[in-house]
Amino acid sequence: MSAWTLDERRDLRIASLDLRMPATAVRNQQGHGVQLFSGNATSTVYIVDFIYTRCNTVCSALGGEFAQLSHQVKADGLSGQLGLVSISLDARDTAGDLKTYAATYRASLPEWEVVTASDSRELNALLRQADVIAIPDGMGGITHNGALDVVSANGVVLATYPMEQFQQAYLFARSVVRQAAR
Fold first, then answer.
1. What is the CA radius of gyration of the chain?
2. Residue 108 zone, left/alpha/beta (φ > 0; ψ -120 to 50; rest)
3. CATH code for the domain of 107
4. Cβ atoms 149, 130 nearer than 8 A
5. CB neighbours of 84 closer than 8 A, spacing ≥ 6?
6. How does pLDDT run across 69-123, given as a tens digit for each residue?
7. How far apart are CA 82 and CA 42, in angstroms?
8. Backbone torsions φ then ψ of 38, nearest 5 degrees
């Protein structure tokens, strides 16, 4: 099978379980260093979005959706099993920026981590290997997609959903957690 667009290629790689997010050193909203997708995480599965803190459009909508999902994770008793991760794709985002974004949307650990890569090399490797496009828009912003990826603890992208289908992403992620518990 061949793909004509990056989205088609990404979909084919996900269907064959060939799309992986690499183990990535990040800093979270509390300024703590964390290793994502190394397989050593406590959560079984993550719902991952890509944001940047200066974004007032897609990222605001994603923040609102993740706020709802964070409440759902708690209500379903899945804290520590199903995690939410917002990864900043803006190398300018500081720990303070992440903390402000987290406070705005009431992101709290362990349900929801807001992170940025430890350095631009880590960020670029993550974006490249995950087939995520982030293009400066020439006005200080970044054009990017608003997809939600459901990712295993060791970085395998199991599914992707458009941001409008955030509840479906949650239902799928929850089913992965429940299957792993059996």
1. 15
2. beta
3. 3.40.30.10
4. yes
5. 46, 47, 48, 66, 69, 70, 73, 107, 111, 112, 113
6. 999 999 999 999 999 999 999 888 999 999 999 999 999 988 999 999 988 898 8
7. 9
8. -95, -5
Nearest 5°: CA angle at 153, between 6 and 177?
A: 105
How many structural domains compose the chain? 1
Give the 3-state secondary structure of residue 33. strand
Residue 180 has pLDDT above 90, yes or no: no
β-strands 112-117, 24-28 pairing:
antiparallel
59 is in an annotated binding site: yes
Place of tokens 């997609």: 145
CB 91 within 8 A of CB 120: yes
Does residue 156 lie in a domain region? yes
Contacts of 138 (CB under 8 A, 6+ apart): none
Q: Using CA atoms, how far apart are residues 130 and 49, in angstroms rounded to an integer? A: 12
Residue 26 belongs to a domain: yes
Asked whether residue 1 is domain-assigned, the answer is: no
Q: Quick one: which H or E segment has residue 27?
A: strand 24-28
Question: Is this structure's pTM higher than 0.70?
Answer: yes
- Does any domain span residue 121? yes
As a whole number of angstroms, the distance between CA 9 and CA 155 comes to: 18
According to DSSP, the β-strands at 82-88 and 112-117 are parallel
Tell me which residue range forms the domain holding 53: 6-181
